[in-house]
Amino acid sequence: MAKIPANHPRAKSLKIREKLVKGFERGYVALEGLIAQGRGECFDYLLEEKTTNPAKKAIRAAAAALLLAKHPVISVNGNTAALVAREIVELAKIIPAKIEVNLFYRTKARERKIAIELRKAGAKEILGVGKERATIPELMSERRRVDPRGILIADTVLVPLEDGDRCQALRKLNKTVIAFDLNPLSRTSQAASITIVDNIVRAAPNLIETVKQLKEKPRAELEKILKKFNNKKNLAEVLKHINKRLTELSKK
Ligand code: PTJ
């Protein structure tokens, strides 16, 4: 793989791509995961590759929801393992939450390799790997196979880089769904209880810090934060932010 010059104006973004390409070469990122990243990058340009105020609000609500949950689970796919394995493990530790591998393009080999990446990042227990599964009847894709100790009984599920179907299925099962998705228009973004419209590489460390800040707060305060949050309104704020930026740019 060609070396990226440190002074390249897009070095940061190219390094993120490199992580995904390496993950693909090692066999745990799906080929389609590379396309998904490209889709995300396009929206990240519109956000100026910065965490917006609405994203910060969504991160705060997500932290409150995860701390209030009885059975919080973090779902991990190929892209998430390639980009933020360490952050996922740290987040799971401080909440505390379970980690479950759940793949759209599921193969036993990818499951196993993602578990290896998560172990390298410090995870001790990883659900959803090579075991007998329960299924979510509302769903036809491979994502329907869930761990009976994890997503099946979870009340709150964090689903980074999701496909819309599972998000809707989990909502139908009355679970609180938190999504990271750079596309505010995606079905996932629209269906989730809390959508963090931000790049997972920025949002995951931010979520860790926010969980740390809120961890000792009384439940009543966390409930207040959650009650105040409205996903539709927040997505509208993201669209207004993009709209304002494009309007300003188009005047120049
Ligand atoms: O590992 P698997 O088998 O579970 O497959 C994972 C992918 C991502 C391939 C699969 O879930 C898929 O096809 O996803 P989609 O439908 O392409 O949706 C991915 C969403 O994530 C898109 O809306 C992208 O905008 C968004 N996205 C991509 N990269 C990032 C992102 N959001 C936040 N941070 C990113 N880095």
Structure overview:
The chain has helices spanning 11-25, 31-46, 53-68, 78-94, 108-120, 164-172, 187-191, 200-214, 219-228, 231-251, and strands at 72-76, 98-101, 134-135, 145-146, 156-160, 176-180, 194-196. A five-stranded parallel sheet has the order 2-1-5-6-7, with helices on both faces. The model has no long low-confidence stretch (mean pLDDT 94). The protein has 252 residues and is of the alpha/beta class. The protein has one domain: Phosphopantoate/pantothenate synthetase (Rossmann fold, 3-Layer(aba) Sandwich). The structure holds ligand PTJ.
CATH superfamily caption: Phosphopantoate/pantothenate synthetase
Shape summary: globular
| Structural class category | alpha/beta
Q: Which ions and ligands are bound to the chains? A: ligand PTJ
Which architecture name does CATH use?
A: 3-Layer(aba) Sandwich
The total count of strands amounts to: 7
- Summed up, the helix count is 10
Number of structural domains: 1
The averaged pLDDT comes out at 94
Main pleated sheet: 5 strands, parallel
Q: Whole-Å distance between the termini?
A: 39 Å
- Determine the fraction of residues in helical runs and give it as a percent range: 40-55%
Beta-strand content estimate: 5-15%
Radius of gyration: 18 Å
Question: Which regions are unreliable across 5 or more consecutive residues at pLDDT < 50?
Answer: none
**Arrangement of strands in the largest sheet:** 2-1-5-6-7
In CATH, the topology is named Rossmann fold
Order of helices and strands: HHHEHEHEEEHEHEHHH
CATH class: Alpha Beta
